[in-house]
């Protein structure tokens, strides 16, 4: 039978999936000769067996006992020995890093007698009592579910034990083996805690992966002034700058750093205070980075001057740091360009494109904290995670303001624009999570005081209340009262370098959705190779246009409509000219009028006369999404599309650098619709500009269009998948009516895994896209295929489109870099040259 | 080269498609030795060549000239001869009978000189001048497009010619060959007249079929008192009774009978007046029926005592007549049972199931006319076809009231509930069309007077206005002022006989959609073998229930909802008991709650308090069709479905004869939805009635469900295609917003051929159903498959479902007979044992 337990120095072939990230790291470090405490790993297999059986699997306890015996042999101490006890930590470690989500218990093996033995053997009673107090508290919280609030860091052992007895009705367990067994069970059980489930859900980590458990001999950073504990990175996780970066605390255990209860010291101070340990740490970390060929995030402890590494893992980092590190490491010859491209999380790039404070804005800084996660955001103060989650979901911009955050706050963090904490450092929970999510965080802000009872907040001199607006600048740690104007950030050289490498790898073109010249210019700046969706209806709004559009809609006959359309034509023409100029000859896909006409009329109560009132009534629809819109407008009132085509033709003639135009008819369901509209398009183009070339095609946004793509392709030069509407029709789900309502319930309750409006529903919408591609190509092998729904900027969806063999994806300008990178990674993964990038790492 | 022209006695292999119905009939009658005037047929090939070329095809005129020469030879008269001219009729004749839709011109060959020759040679100047007057009028109307109103039946030749000159600016053509050529062109052109297009569209006749042209030597029913013309049937086309049935007019030409200008005499009078011709007609018609093995509709002329048959065709008949004739002819050994089943038009059966006047209703008959088409209807008087079409489309019940109808009125007839005319007989346009459409017609109502100017109508003593209600009883010819209660008709023995034969042939089961015990009983009466859709939401309405439902919706928590549901349970249980009793152990598919909850709340302005108002607002949806409904309700608020399942279980236990229940979850899109709901269903059933068996399945009404049918089938015992919603989602078309709006435009403008909500869209919705069937069966070979959308009662859709291999179709109780017959015909057609039945004939 395959063993459930492996010593760190025992060879195993299971790797990360079996031993978890922490276990693999400890085993590898042991193998590399890095100073690591002795210990062993209980595999994820054991966890899965536990989940199936609802209890520890047969044989596991015996295996654990055997490995404890080995540990006793090696350390010369005995587990449960009242005189000089072997103490261990019990730590979870899943294959994917889930910081703060799983539970750790230190000092397992202490009891009322052994604490005295420990005091004797170390000659340090305070230390021994501190260890026991920590064990009782951690064990009580983690194993017995006692609320964190019941304990305090300055409790005595006696006080902690009283709380334990009061809360559980039992004495604290004195048997070391019972402590160990219950700790292992608690780690396994914590895999299915609500907060772990939310985290997995957010980062799309499979529920059946399970966690490993590491049982490690204790080393003590809390043995006095020559002891310390810390967290360090091989490069700065915020900027990617080379060189040791981190924080440590003297006379502390690891949890003190992570929990943000004491504000830690920068590493520079350790160099002075513990020079030997520091030098050894520096050398060891360089070795680890070289070995793993990636930025490492290390936990270490110095016990009476002696260094131990407790963990190493790939460091979570900001997008900017990820880019810089990848570019630098490529320059250092550590990794290839493909590696560099493969290891950037495309969805994280987004944070580089987040707004920053407008440099011209005037504001007063109310307080400062740590610049824990870059970017800027404004929003209303909210003081608890539940409210933040609720209001954020409802679309409000909120900033979560807390003393410190815990994993229980994860749902509130997800829905906030940013987070501000009074306690904790750069590696505190709030900071780590915010960086992973690419949202601003200011941590450890001493000028912040919160009164939960009165819902009042003091920031520096200001007294504010829940609901008042503040602005965070996570890049500098500034906190500002009120809203501040934001500007989009500029893109740095590393960004351009990586995207340049990505462009060399990808097959998919990346186009952008842009409705005007400014967006088109922005799109090109971000590297768009064309415009995949130019919505013309936006040109129907505007003070000078809307009244004319309304006249057109209210006209009683075709002549009246034509007269109004005649006046709209110059507006459209000049809009098109601007876009064509901006795109300088790159392809531009123009979608003719799509929304139902009632969108251009005021609400019924604002109608200015009886005629308008009756027209509004006549145009009111039960389900406007499925009503008279898209090409149904152009079929019934061809004069509208005629005007639009005419404006396109005239704009094409007017611009200097030429325009490569693709005219797109929306919402086609029947081949006959497109046949007619193509005829209309060609007739008008012939009249206006017989010499100009253009393409004519359709969106595929109805299931019927996909199913009949072979017939429709006879009249189409291109298909563009309108996956927003295709998702709505294929799933029978109106986005407006689903999000925040049953769809949110479905996501939270696990009925479905991902929001199909964000990440393409591959089994449903993807399946019907595949049908459309096959049938369309069966008629016209060379038909151009693209996607212009919002999914075009979602990395997973981009990869699907690559696999489907589309020619391009089109997304919002700000998503273009994301799509460029995702398209390159799709090539690498399809060729087995890369794995999925773990979110935020 | 294949000839374009065939003499009636010339053999041709083209048959009906080439020669048209009339041409084939004339050739076959000639072959059988039936007295038929000499002549020839210009083929539909020539018509198609004409339509392609936009003019007469090369060689056609020469062929016509050669056949005219042969006709001259045979008759001893010369075409254009001023002394004793050969006269011909030019008549259209398509492969499918299109009564009154195409144009006929009589007496071609007459001119100013020849009319005098004809007068001399017949010794009958009045007759000769009557013939010439008719030619000028018909030619003027048909070839030159002069309005019918410009001529009057009592015009003189001179007056007719004056009108012709005034309207066309030209003299009436004197060259017989020019007359013939232009007449042929006019027939070809009339194929594409708007009224012909509307007719073809209504009866789904292909546009490229084309018409043949028959050129026939004139025989004259207007040569005095021993001449006559008439229309006769071998059996009564209203009842199917055996024996000659028809009408004739002495001293008249055929158009006089059909146009309804003179009210014709019954055939009985002809027996007395023209006994020899009558006897010969009787014998000839018997021979023709024997030959064609079907009821024949014959046009005949008696010229100075000598009988000629001008046409024979299968008679259009009422559904009752079709059934009786088919049963009788099977009894007579003329046809087989399969023939009998094959030749009933299933959609026509519907008319047997139309409402009749309530026998207990008290009313006064205002006037009487001919009982021209059976059934009864009430509606508002409308005096012109355009208004009738408009109001009918808008959903108003209208009765078209006219002096007489013409083919130009066809769009108004289609949209009326019934038609009342002052003139015309059983074979008048109004009567023939109404019978074909299965709607009531009272024709030749002498008590009817119409004043179009004042929009006033006199019916007997009553003065009415447009918009006033009347009731027609087409079965008896009674006209009643106001509305009269109607009852559904009972089913006769012939009906049962044919359906019994159909049941012996079909493979598909026919189930019905029924929501209560009454409908269930009705469904069984019509032969339903189960209930395919029992909608439970109807049980949520009703004065005693709705307030409780509203309480449930307004409840602030689950406990409140459960409390209200508890009170609803007995209502649902007793409803289910009633249905189970009615179905006596046949399968009943119960669909759990489907509509969005706001349907149970009043409109916002009627909310009784703030709480209700805010709940209504919260439940308001942009696209309710795609919102929180179907199983999305059951997933979010499982207590609702729990109550429903509990009510089903208790009802199953309560009934004596057992209940075969299938619990259906609506709007499933994800396998996980059905997995959860199946678990819920099984849990409740186990609690309530562990001993009872039931099936659990889902509707397939979302494209995603079809695409993921393999996964969904893992949790489903059955699929039922909800093709109403599946059509809405696949086509992206809200029925409410499409019909009467763009969909009506699409149908009229020929963008699509059929209303996809009436006849299944096989290319789109059918294609996705096929995917669902294949994928569902790939997981569960034995999965039960049915359809419960309205298409389940549409013959074409039933045939598609047969081809798809479904187990049953389910439709409204009144459509069950239609579906039973259609299912049998599907078997016959799939085996090549039957062709499509031509609509109405």
Identify the notable features of this structure and list them briefly:
homodimer, 841 residues, alpha/beta, eight-stranded mixed beta sheet, eight-stranded parallel barrel, 33 strands, 19% strand, elongated
Structure description:
The structure is a homodimer of 841-residue chains. Chain A is of the alpha/beta class and 841 residues long. In chain A, 44% of the residues lie in helices and 19% in strands. Chain A has an 8-stranded mixed sheet with strand order 14-24-23-16-17-18-19-15. In chain A, a hairpin with a 4-residue loop joins strand 23 (469-473) and strand 24. The first copy, chain A, is elongated and about 100 Å long. The mean pLDDT of chain A is 90.
Topology of this protein?
2 copies of one chain form a homodimer.
Chain A: E1 5-7, H1 15-32, E2 39-42, H2 44-53, H3 60-75, E3 78-79, E4 85-86, E5 88-94, E6 104-108, H4 112-122, H5 125-142, H6 157-168, H7 176-190, H8 194-203, E7 211-217, E8 228-235, E9 242-250, H9 254-258, E10 265-266, H10 267-273, H11 275-292, E11 296-303, E12 306-314, H12 319-331, H13 337-342, H14 346-349, E13 356-357, E14 365-368, E15 370-373, E16 376-382, H15 385-393, E17 398-402, H16 410-415, E18 418-421, H17 429-437, E19 441-443, E20 448-451, E21 456-459, E22 462-465, E23 469-473, E24 478-481, E25 486-487, H18 493-505, E26 509-513, H19 517-525, E27 531-535, H20 546-554, H21 558-583, E28 587-591, H22 610-619, H23 631-636, H24 638-654, E29 660-665, H25 671-688, E30 694-700, H26 703-707, H27 709-712, E31 718-721, H28 723-731, H29 735-748, H30 762-779, E32 784-787, H31 795-804, E33 808-811, H32 816-830
Parallel strand pairs in A: 3-4, 16-17, 17-18, 18-19, 26-27, 26-33, 27-28, 28-29, 29-30, 30-31, 31-32, 32-33
Antiparallel strand pairs in A: 1-2, 2-7, 5-6, 5-7, 8-9, 8-11, 9-10, 11-12, 13-25, 14-24, 15-19, 16-23, 20-21, 21-22, 23-24
Helix pairs in contact in A: 4-5, 5-6, 10-11, 12-18, 18-32, 19-21, 20-21, 21-24, 24-25, 31-32
């Amino acid at each position: 039978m395959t063993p459930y337990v492996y010593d760190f120095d025992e060879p195993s072939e299971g790797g990360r999936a079996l031993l978890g990230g922490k276990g693999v790291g400890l085993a590898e470090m042991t193998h590399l000769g890095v100073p690591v405490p002795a210990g062993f790993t209980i595999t994820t297999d054991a966890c899965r067996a536990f989940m199936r059986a609802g209890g520890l699997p047969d044989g596991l306890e015996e295996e654990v006992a055997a490995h404890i015996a080995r540990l006793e042999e090696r350390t010369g101490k005995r587990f449960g020995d009242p005189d000089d006890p072997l103490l261990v930590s019990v730590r979870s470690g899943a294959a994917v890093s889930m910081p703060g989500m799983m539970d750790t218990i230190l000092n397992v093996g202490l009891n009322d007698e052994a604490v005295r033995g420990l005091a004797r053997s170390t000659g340090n009673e305070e230390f021994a009592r501190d260890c026991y107090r920590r064990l009782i508290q951690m064990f009580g919280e983690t194993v017995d579910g006692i609320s964190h609030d019941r304990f305090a860091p300055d409790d005595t052992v006696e006080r902690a034990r009283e709380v334990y007895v009061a809360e559980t009705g039992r004495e604290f367990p004195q048997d070391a083996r019972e402590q160990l067994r219950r700790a292992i069970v608690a780690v396994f059980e914590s895999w299915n805690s609500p907060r772990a489930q939310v985290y997995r859900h957010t980062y799309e980590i499979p529920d059946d992966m399970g966690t490993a458990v590491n049982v490690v001999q204790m080393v003590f950073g809390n043995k006095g002034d020559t002891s310390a504990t810390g967290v360090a990175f091989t490069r700065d996780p915020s900027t990617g700058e080379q060189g040791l970066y981190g924080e440590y605390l003297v006379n502390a255990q690891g949890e003190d750093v992570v929990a943000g209860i004491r504000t830690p010291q920068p590493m520079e101070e350790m160099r002075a205070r513990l020079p030997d340990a520091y030098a050894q740490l520096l050398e060891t970390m360089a070795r680890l980075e070289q070995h793993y060929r990636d930025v490492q995030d290390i936990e270490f402890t110095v016990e009476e001057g002696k260094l131990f590494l407790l963990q190493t893992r790939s460091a979570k980092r900001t997008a900017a740091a990820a880019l810089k590190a990848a570019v630098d490491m490529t320059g250092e010859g550590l990794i290839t360009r493909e590696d560099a491209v493969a290891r950037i999380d495309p969805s994280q790039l987004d944070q580089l494109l987040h707004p920053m404070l407008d440099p011209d804005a005037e504001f007063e800084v109310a307080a400062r904290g740590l610049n824990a996660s870059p970017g800027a955001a404004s929003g209303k103060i909210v003081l608890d995670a539940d409210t933040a989650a609720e209001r954020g979901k409802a679309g409000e911009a909120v900033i979560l303001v807390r003393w410190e955050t815990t994993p229980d706050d994860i749902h509130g963090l997800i829905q906030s624009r940013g987070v501000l904490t009074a306690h904790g450092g750069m590696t505190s929970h709030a900071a780590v999570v915010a960086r992973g999510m690419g949202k601003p965080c200011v941590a450890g802000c001493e000028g912040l005081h919160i009164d939960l009872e009165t819902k009042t907040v003091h920031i520096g001199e200001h007294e504010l209340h829940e609901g008042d607006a503040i602005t965070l600048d996570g890049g500098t740690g500034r906190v500002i009262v009120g809203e501040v104007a934001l500007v989009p950030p500029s893109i740095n050289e590393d960004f351009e370098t990586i995207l340049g490498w990505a462009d060399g790898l990808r097959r998919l073109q990346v186009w952008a959705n842009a409705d005007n010249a400014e967006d088109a210019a922005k799109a090109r700046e971000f590297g768009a190779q064309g415009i995949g969706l130019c919505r013309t209806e936006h040109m129907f709004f505007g003070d000078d246009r809307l009244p004319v559009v309304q006249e057109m809609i209210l006209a009683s006959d075709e002549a009246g409509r034509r007269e109004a359309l005649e006046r709209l034509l110059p507006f459209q023409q000049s809009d098109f000219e601007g876009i064509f100029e901006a795109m300088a000859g790159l392809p531009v896909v123009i979608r003719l009028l799509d929304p139902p006409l009632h969108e251009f009329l005021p609400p019924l109560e604002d109608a200015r006369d009886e005629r308008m009132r009756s027209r509004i009534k006549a145009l009111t629809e039960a389900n406007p999404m499925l009503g008279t819109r898209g090409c149904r407008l152009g079929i019934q009132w061809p004069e509208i599309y005629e005007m639009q085509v005419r404006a396109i033709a005239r704009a094409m003639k007017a611009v200097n650098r030429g325009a490569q135009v693709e005219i797109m008819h929306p919402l086609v369901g029947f081949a006959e619709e497109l046949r007619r509209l193509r005829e209309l398009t060609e007739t008008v183009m012939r009249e206006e500009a017989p010499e100009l070339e253009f393409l004519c095609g359709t969106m595929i946004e109805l299931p019927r269009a996909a199913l009949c793509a072979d017939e429709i392709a006879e009249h189409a030069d291109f298909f563009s998948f309108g996956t927003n509407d295709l998702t709505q029709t294929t799933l029978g789900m109106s986005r407006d009516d689903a999000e925040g309502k049953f769809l949110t319930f479905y996501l939270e309750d696990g009925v479905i895994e991902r929001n199909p409006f964000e990440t393409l529903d591959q089994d449903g919408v993807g399946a019907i896209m595949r049908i459309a591609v096959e049938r369309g190509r069966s008629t016209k092998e060379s038909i151009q295929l693209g996607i212009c729904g919002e999914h075009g900027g979602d990395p997973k969806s981009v990869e699907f489109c690559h696999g489907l063999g589309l020619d391009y994806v089109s997304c919002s300008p700000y998503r273009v870099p994301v799509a460029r990178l995702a398209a390159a990674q799709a090539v690498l993964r399809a060729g087995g040259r890369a794995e999925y990038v773990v979110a935020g790492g």
